[in-house]
Design goal:
Helix content: under 10%
Oligomer: single chain
Shape: globular
Radius of gyration: 22 Å
Structural class: mainly beta
Length: about 300
């Protein structure tokens, strides 16, 4: 009996210690005048990040739950030349081994928050340049109703999930949407709503799932590269003019739907393809080892 009481007491102490290790931090920019562009540099080494629009007057609000840390995030901002520069950095100072970091990817848990969680709220009344850097974890990004001029993402081994919760496209012409992942997966839905001139996606080891829910209204070029893994693309319907060029090796399998026309040299076009179409989509797909599937 005494042993059971000691065990329960020990478990309670462990739970309380874990709760005490949780730290909640908020970072806000309260200024909303004197600038017309927000440049956000967001760099976190671990966690689940959620980036979306939030109703309010603040151009930026970052809310975080941190677990077992021995250093807090660093946050700063300044206004210069009518531009708001905001910077949040959270570096890895924990004694995590490489094996433990890899285990997050190889043996994921459905309830794993990777120790930290981040909530980044943006405002539809401001224009943004987003520079986002993730270490280990997951990033869920919904840019619905947020004017974004550029979005650059780098990931060591975090999965990146893009979606547009609403069907309203980006109200500005995005110059570049770029995602570079070392080891992980990219899931991107409703890519046509980003209204981007250029889309550059690169995954060294992992899978890309790219989905166009509709056609493009202006020209765009998509360049997707996978070292070892898969590219799966859901194309818009046949009314969208597009051309697809595939660069692959003997170790890459390709699956091409029959309604696409093969014009040679691993190049395919839609039935409505016109070289001078104002909304022409150009897709260049490059896989060394793995597969390319179009549907």
């Amino acid at each position: 009996m005494l042993n059971k009481i000691c065990l329960i007491f020990g478990l309670l102490i462990g739970v309380l210690s874990d709760l005490q290790a949780q730290i909640t931090k908020d970072f806000k920019i309260l200024e909303n005048q004197g600038f017309n562009l927000v440049v956000l540099d967001f760099n976190v080494y671990k966690g689940v990040s959620n980036i979306k629009r939030e109703v309010g007057a603040d151009p930026l609000h970052i809310h975080s739950h941190l677990s077992k840390v021995n250093i807090l995030p660093s946050f700063s901002y300044q206004i210069k030349d009518e531009t708001m520069y905001a910077n949040l950095v959270h570096r890895n100072v924990e004694s995590e081994s490489l094996g433990k970091s890899l285990s997050y990817k190889l043996f994921p848990s459905s309830n794993d928050d990777f120790g930290h969680s981040w909530f980044v709220d943006l405002n539809s009344n401001f224009l943004y340049n987003l520079n986002l850097n993730f270490g280990v974890g997951v990033a869920n990004i919904d840019l619905s109703q947020i004017p974004v001029a550029n979005c650059m993402i780098r990931s060591a081994s975090a999965d990146i999930n893009f979606d547009y919760g609403r069907k309203t496209p980006n109200t500005v012409r995005m110059d570049t949407l770029s995602v570079l992942i070392n080891m992980g997966n990219l899931h991107a839905k409703k890519l046509n709503l980003f209204n981007a001139k250029k889309m550059n996606f690169e995954v060294n080891y992992g899978t890309m799932d790219l989905n166009f829910s509709g056609g493009m209204t202006e020209k765009t070029h998509l360049h997707a590269v996978v070292g070892a893994g898969k590219i799966n693309i859901t194309l818009p319907d046949e009314s969208q003019p597009f051309i697809i060029k595939i660069k692959s090796t003997a170790m890459c399998r390709t699956y091409i739907p029959k309604h696409l026309k093969d014009i040679g040299n691993k190049t395919y076009i839609s039935k409505s393809f016109r070289e001078d179409a104002p909304n022409l989509m150009e897709l260049t797909l490059d896989v060394s080892v793995g597969s390319v599937t179009l549907k």
